[in-house]
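Need a sequence for this fold. Nothing fancy.
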């Protein structure tokens, strides 16, 4: 039976605040602060557990091997020889944000009736550009059933693709054919546009999507300049509902009209800038909440604590829930460690519509499995990391050993290797 499975990235033991992500305001603002990898991983696992308890299907991806010594060797450097900036790029735990792992088109949308997944190349940012090799391997393991899945290598550079964070799907229900919206940016202003139109169009072709039910929409320059480095910072879709900020898209009326033509039952919930400014939306990660359908059929938002702490955002949410809008429940979680590096609840997960029975069970979460992972994190993840600690050989060894223990715990030893 087709259902939506949220695959969360487990936060890796090298989680730190090296300020590597240009255009990500939280990442820049918290550069140099002390991170807490153990807390970060436990916060993410707590959200996964809560979604399981709500009756939602939950998967997971493993953190990648860090430091990435193979990548450094390709650059002619060792960890000891690399300068601070290059070393920080090799130690980034940014694969925790699984929304950037791949773009996913469910079986009802594709020409061959299989779920297609294309790994994102993430070429714009050095610290993320070397993720795709292991991401591709994890996707190939998790979705190895070729009768139901097709896993594709990334779109080649120079066309930047940052995955599902710039992709939305609207449909009557998850198992019905949908309208897929690919959101791209254009260069200009202080920050780079990470999602290229050419990459989005390529993924749509590779997935065999019906052009009549595929849309390309440009992200507004205002949103990018305000710090919306991915579309999912200002808009999110679930089944028939598009939840968006008024200033998310360059041609919002054209997008809305196109959606209504293709999916008459679409419901557009637009938050006006007069009620919630772009600055408040981005600081609170209101739209980077997980918009999900509960087993009851009602929709809920899984929100970071910052949304509740931002008066304009929380006032709008409470008024919406009190009215007759489609979002009926608000669930708040402490994800401060992820938020401080620029990633909210939706950044941590990749949505895959599939039959859970067709997925490698090693990647499917259960309460018992989460118990074991939490115990392992408490035993092996560093309590804290300061930026100067990134030069410590002891930290490098501890991070590699911690991840190896997780691979062994989940019987995924084939991931315990160098991918270069």
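Here you go.
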């Amino acid at each position: 039976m087709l259902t939506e499975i949220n695959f969360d990235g487990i936060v890796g033991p090298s989680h730190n605040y090296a300020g590597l992500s240009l255009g990500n305001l939280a990442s820049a603002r918290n550069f140099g602060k002390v991170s807490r990898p153990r807390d970060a991983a436990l916060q993410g696992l707590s959200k996964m557990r809560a979604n399981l308890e709500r009756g939602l299907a939950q998967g997971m991806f493993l953190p990648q091997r860090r430091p990435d010594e193979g990548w450094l060797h390709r650059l002619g450097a060792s960890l000891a020889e690399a300068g601070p900036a290059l070393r920080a790029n090799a130690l980034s735990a940014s694969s925790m944000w699984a929304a950037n792992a791949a773009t996913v088109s469910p079986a009802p949308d594709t020409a061959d009736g299989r779920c297609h997944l294309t790994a994102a190349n993430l070429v714009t940012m050095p610290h993320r550009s070397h993720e795709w090799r292991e991401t591709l391997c994890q996707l190939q393991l998790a979705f190895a059933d070729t009768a139901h899945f097709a896993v594709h290598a990334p779109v080649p550079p120079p066309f930047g693709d940052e995955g599902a964070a710039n992709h939305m799907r609207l449909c009557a229900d998850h198992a019905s054919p949908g309208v897929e919206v690919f959101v791209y940016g254009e260069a200009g202003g202080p920050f780079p546009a990470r999602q290229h139109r050419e990459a989005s169009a390529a993924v749509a072709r590779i997935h065999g999507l019906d052009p009549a039910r595929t849309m390309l929409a440009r992200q507004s320059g205002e949103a990018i300049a305000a710090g919306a480095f991915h579309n999912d910072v200002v808009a999110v879709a679930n089944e028939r509902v598009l939840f968006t900020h008024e200033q998310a898209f360059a041609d919002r009326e054209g997008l809305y009209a196109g959606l209504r033509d293709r999916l008459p039952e679409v419901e557009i919930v637009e938050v006006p800038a007069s009620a919630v400014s772009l600055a408040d939306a981005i600081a609170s990660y209101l739209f980077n909440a997980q918009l999900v359908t509960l087993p009851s059929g009602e929709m809920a938002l899984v929100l970071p604590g910052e949304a509740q702490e931002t008066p304009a955002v929380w006032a709008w949410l409470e008024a919406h829930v009190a009215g007759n809008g489609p979002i009926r429940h608000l669930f708040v979680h402490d994800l401060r460690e992820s938020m401080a590096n620029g990633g909210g609840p939706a950044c941590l997960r990749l949505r895959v519509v599939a039959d859970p029975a067709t997925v490698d069970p090693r990647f499917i979460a259960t309460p018992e499995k989460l118990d074991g992972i939490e115990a392992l994190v408490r035993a092996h993840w560093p309590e804290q990391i300061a930026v100067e600690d990134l030069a410590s050989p002891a930290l490098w060894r501890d991070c590699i050993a911690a991840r190896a223990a997780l691979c062994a715990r989940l019987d995924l030893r084939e991931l315990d290797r160098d991918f270069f």
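For context: Residues 362 and 412 are 8 Å apart (CA to CA).
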